[in-house]
Amino acid sequence: MPGGRQGGRRRSRLRLSNIYAFKCRKSRFQEDHSQIGGPGFSRVVYCNEPNSPASERRNYAGNYVRSTKYTPASFIPKSLFEQFRRVANFYFLVSGILSLTPLSPYSAVSALLPLGFVILVSMVKEGIEDWGRKRQDIEVNNRRVKVHDGNGTFRVEEWRDLKVGDIVRVEKDEFFPADLLLLSSSYEDSICYVETMNLDGETNLKVKQGLEATSSALHEDSDFRELKAVVRCEDPNADLYTFVGTLHLEEQRHPLSIQQLLLRDSKLRNTEYVYGAVVFTGPDTKVIQNSTDPPSKRSRIERKMDKIIYMMFFIVFLMSFIGSIIFGIETREDRVRAGGRTERWYLKPDDADIFFDSDNAPLAAILHFLTAVMLYSYFIPISLYVSIEIVKVLQSVFINNDILMYYEETDKPAHARTSNLNEELGMVDTILSDKTGTLTCNSMEFIKCSIAGTAYGRGITEVERSMAMRSGGAALVGNDLDVVVDKSGPKIKGFNFQDERVMKGNWVKQREAAVMQKFFRLLAVCHTAIPETDEATGAVSYEAESPDEAAFVVAARELGFEFFSRTQNGISFRELDLATGQKVERVYRLLNVLEFNSARKRMSVIVRDEDGKLLLLSKGADNVMFERLAKNGRKFEEKTREHVNEYADAGLRTLILAYREVDENEYIEFSKNFNEAKNSVTADRESLIDEITEQMERDLILLGATAVEDKLQNGVPECIDKLAQAGIKIWVLTGDKMETAINIGFACSLLRQEMKQIIINLETPHIKALEKAGEKDAIEQASRESVVKQMEEGKALITGSSGSGSHDAFALIIDGKSLTYALEDDFKNQFLDLATRCASVICCRSSPKQKALVTRLVKTGTGKTTLGIGDGANDVGMLQEADIGVGISGVEGMQAVMSSDIAIAQFRYLERLLLVHGHWCYSRISSMICYFFYKNITFGVTVFLYEAYTSFSAQPAYNDWFLSLFNVFFSSLPVIALGVFDQDVSSRFCYKFPLLYQEGVQNLLFSWKRIIGWMFNGVITALCIFFICKESQEHQLYNPNGKTAGREILGATMYTCIVWVVNLQMVLAISYFTWVQHIVIWGSVALWYIFLMVYGAMGPSFSTDAYKIFLEALAPAPSYWLTTLFVMIFALIPYFVFKAIQMRFFPGYHQMIQWIRYEGHSNDPEFVEMVRQRSIRPTTVGFTARRAASVRRSGRFHDQLKKNFIAF
C-alpha cells in the first residue's frame, strides 16, 4: 500500500482515537436519531454510486464554486444597475435621456458621452476587481484530486467535476475538495490530522477519525471496488462544529458526527493519505455556507458627501424653478411691439411652437424648467464618485507598500482589504482593543508556579519592571529572590523558568516532593498536544492547540517529565522515579478528554495509571476551579490564592491544577451517560454534556497554580502614548483577570500612577453571601443595584473633581459580570456617559459578545468613529461592529484578519496607520471633495449668470463639447493628484505633533463651515469671471470688418478663464508639490488650448460655433490674453487674502506646523513645545502625560503658554 511503511512507523507513535472521538467508533443510536429523514435531515448520499439513477434524481449541486460578483451574462445589466443606484449618476442618465428631446440645450452626444465615459471607467474597475476573484475561482476549481472510477483504481479529476457520492483519495498537505466522510486513512485506527486555518483561523491541528466499520475493511485502492453504502444526514448548513447522520453499511447502521467530517478548504497534515466519500459539494459545503458578505461600511465623509449632493440637487431645482417663473413672465409680456417685432426678436418666437409662445406662457415655463434642470446639471460633479474611487484605490496601494508597516519576521505587510474607509482612519475617536495577541505577543512563557503553597520561579516580568519604575525602586520580587537572574532571554521557546530548587531534579529534595510529582505529571498528561520526535536527534517538539498548552508541555519536559508519545489509548512520558532516582517511562491509559471551551474555562482528562487507579486531572481558571475543590483538598488554598493574586499583579496568566481519584462504579456510570449525551442529536446536547462533566469535575484536591507570561509586543507602550497624545481614547476589552489587566495597563502606559481608578465589580460581601445561598433572583437584583450605585459614585467623583478645577485623570475598570448589567437598556447610557468621561477604560473577563456590544454602544452612543483591533476569532464581532476593523495577523490564525477592513502584523503599526496615513487620507479626501464642488459651482454659476443675462432663455454660455469635457478632461486629473499625493505636513511632523490628528476627529477639514466656504469661493470666482469677461468683451472688435464679440467668443474666453483659475486655485491649495502635480495641472491648461485648436480645425458641421475660433479670433486679439490675465488675478485675490489673514491671525493646527517648518523652528525645543501645548484637548494617557501633569501642577503652564503664543 502506498505510504504503508511510513504510515506504519507513524502508527506506532501517533494515535489519538479516544482523545477527540470520545469512543465514537463504538457509540450507540439513541431515539433522537429518528430526526434523520425528517425536515432538515433529508440528504441521502449513495457512496461510490455518483451516477446511479437514485443519485441523479436528487439533483444535488455540483462542486463548482463562484465567489465573483458577476457572471459574463449578468455583468453588464448588474453593473449598470450598481452604477445607477447612485443618485448623481441616475440624475445624469435622466438628463441624457432628456437631451434626446427638442428641449435639450445641448446635443445628446455631448451629454451622453461623458456619462458613458464615467460609467465605463467604474465598470472597468468593477470588472478588474471581479476578474481577480474569477482567477481565484479558476485556480480553486481546477485543482486536481484522485477519484475512484468504480473499478478499484483512482483517476485524477478536477475539483469542479466532483459529484456527491464520489470516493476520493487526498494526499498529505492537500486541501479537501468538498465536505468528505472520512472512511479510512494511512493510520490503522483511521485518524488523520487536519489544519482548519482557512475555516476558523486556528493554526493548531485537529484530529479526525473514521468509523471502525469502514477503516477495518478499506485499506487500499482496490478495496473500494465493491463498496456500497448510503449516508443519510442533515441538510447543508453553516455550522462548522456539528454534523448528524447515519451510515448504512452491510445492513448495519452507524452514527456519524463532526468527527468523521472533513471540511472543504481544510488541509490534510501529518497523514500520508485519507479516503473519503463526498457528502456536500460546492455551494452546499459548510465553508461556502459560511461565506457571507461582511457588513457594508461607508465612511462619514462619504455619507456627508451624499448630503451635499442632495443640497446641490435642491439648489439646481430651485434655480430652475425661479428661472422658469421669470422666463414665463418674460414670455407672457413679450408682445409684438411697433414695427411688427417682439422685444426678444432674436429668439425667433414666431418659429417656436410652444417654447417662446407668449400665448402659452405657463407651458413654456414648465418646458423651460426641464431644460434648465439639464443645463444646470453641471453644478453636480459627474466624475466625483469615480475620481474618489480611483484615489482611494491608489491610497490603499501606498498603505499596502509602506515599508515602515512591513513585519519582516513573519513577512507580512499591511493590507487594506477595503479602500472604502481610508479617510475614516483619520477620524478615529475611540480604539477598542483586545489584549492577548494584540497588545501582547500571544507567545506564552512558563515563568512561575505555586506548588503545595510554595512559590517557585525567580524570573522578573515586564510588568514587574514597569511597577519598579513607577515606584522608583527595585523590582517587586519575593524576599527569597535575591539571586542574579539571567536576562539574556529564554533559550527554549515557551520556557523562562529559573529556580534552583526545582531545576535539574532538585525538586525531589523539597518537603512536598510527592505533591510536586503529581503537579508535573498533570502538566505532562492533561493536554491535547501532539508530540513529534526528530528521528535524527531524538528531540521532541509539540503541536498544541494554544500557546499556553505548548508552554505547559515544554515546562514539564524541561522539569524532568517528558511527554514523548501517544498511542491509541495511552500517553507515555518519562519521569524521575522518587524511589530509585532513575529516569523511568510511564504509560497512562487515556480514557476521556473533557475539552476546554470559553464557557467551561477548564479542561480535564480521565486516565488510568500503571497501578490501575482512575484519576481525573484538571486545570482551569481560578474562579471555576476553587469552587470545585473538596473540603479535604483545600490544604494549600490560602497560600495558592495569595500567589495567584501576586502573579496577576505581575501581569501573568494563571491556571489552577487539581486532581482526584475516581471510583470504578462512578466512572462506569459516567462513561455510559457521557457517551449517550455525545451521541444525542437534540438541541440541548451540549448542555447535557456540560451537566455530566460538571458532576465528574468536583471534589478536587488542589496541587497548585501555573503562571505564564504573555509579553508585550515591541513598541506597544510608545504607540499607546503617541495615540493618547493624539487625543484618541483607548479601551481594552479582555478576558483576563482584573489584576492582570490593570498591571498590563500600567506596563503599556494605558494607566499611570496619578490616575484615579473607578473599579466596578461584584465582589461585595452581600453578593457573595447571596451566591452561597444560591438565591438566583436575589443575586441578580442585588448585582444590578450594586453596579448602578457604583456607576453613580464614579460619576459623582468625576463631577466633583472637575468642579474643583483639578486636572485629575480617571480610569474605569469593570469586570464581565458587572458589564452584563451595565449594558442593559436601562443603564447602558449611564455606563457610556461614565466611560467617555474617563481617560482609559478596561473591561475585564469580557466575552466575545460583550466586546461586540460595548463596541456598538460606543459607536452609536457617541456618534464618533470607532476602531476595533484584535487578532483572534473571539474578536470578529468587535471588528465587524466597529466603524473600522483592524486585524492583527498573529498567532491565533487569520480569522480576525479575514473579518477585518485592514490587516497589520503588529499593534505598533497602528501609530503610523492612523497618525500618518489616516491623517493624510482624511486631509486629501476632504480637500478633494471641497475642491470638486468649488470648481463645479464656479463653472455652473457662469452658466446660470449667462442664462440670466439672456433673460433665462435656456441658452448655454459654452459650446456643447466645452460643457461636456470640463469635468472629464480639463479639471479632473489635478484633483485626483491632490487626493493621492498631497501632504499638508510631512510624516515626521505627524509624529512630532500627534494632536494634529484631532483635526480629523473633530472633522475640522470637512465641516459645513469649510464646505460652504469653498462653495462661496466658487460663487465669488464665477462672478469675477463672468462680469470681467462680459464687460471687457462688450465693445471689442474681433476682425477687420468691425465685428464685435458674440456668444462663441465670450463663451470661449470665459471657459479659458475658468480652466486657468480652477487650476491655479489648485496650485494655491496644494501643500506638497510633486512632479506629478506639475504635469497634471499645467498639462490640463495646455490640453485646453490643444483641444481648442484641434476641435476648431474640424469641419463647421461638427465644431459648430467653435470653428477656428482660437486661431482666427482669440489668439490674435490682445484683449483675450489681457482679460485672461486680469481674471486670474482678480478671481484668486479673495482666496489669497482670506488664507493670508487666516494664516496670520487664525491658523489651524496644520497651518501652525507649516509655519514652524517655513520659519525653521522645527528644531527649537521651546517653540515646538509651545505649539504642542496648544492642545485641542489635554493629554491624560501615556508616559508623556506624566510630564504634562507635572507642568500643570507647577502653575507655570498657563503663563508660559500665553507668553509663547503671543511671541508666536
UniProtKB/TrEMBL annotation:
P-type ATPase C-terminal domain: residues covered: 897-1147
Cell compartments where the protein resides: Membrane
Enzyme category, top tier: translocase
GO (cellular component) term, any one: plasma membrane
InterPro entries: ATPase_P-typ_cyto_dom_N, ATPase_P-typ_P_site, ATPase_P-typ_TM_dom_sf, ATPase_P-typ_transduc_dom_A_sf, HAD-like_sf, HAD_sf, P-type_ATPase_IV, P-type_ATPase_N
Residue ranges of every copy of the P-type ATPase N-terminal domain listed in the record: 45-111
Domain of life: Eukaryota
EC id: 7.6.2.1
Positions annotated as active site in the UniProt record: D434 (4-aspartylphosphate intermediate)
Record membrane topology: Multi-pass membrane protein
Binding site for Mg(2+): D434, T436, D871, D875
Keywords: ATP-binding, Magnesium, Membrane, Metal-binding, Nucleotide-binding, Translocase, Transmembrane, Transmembrane helix
Molecular functions (GO terms): ATP binding; ATP hydrolysis activity; ATPase-coupled intramembrane lipid transporter activity; magnesium ion binding
Binding-site list for ATP: D434, K435, T436, E549, F596, K619, R653, T734, G735, D736, R845, K851, N874, D875
Cofactor dependency: Mg(2+)
GO biological process entries: phospholipid translocation; protein localization involved in auxin polar transport
Residue ranges crossing the lipid bilayer per the database entry: 106-124, 308-329, 365-386, 932-949, 961-981, 1011-1029, 1049-1072, 1079-1098, 1118-1138
Reaction catalyzed: ATP + H2O + phospholipidSide 1 = ADP + phosphate + phospholipidSide 2
Pfam family, one: Cation_ATPase
Family that this chain belongs to: Belongs to the cation transport ATPase (P-type) (TC 3.A.3) family. Type IV subfamily.
Function: Involved in transport of phospholipids.
Protein name in UniProt: Phospholipid-transporting ATPase
Organism expressing this protein natively: Raphanus sativus
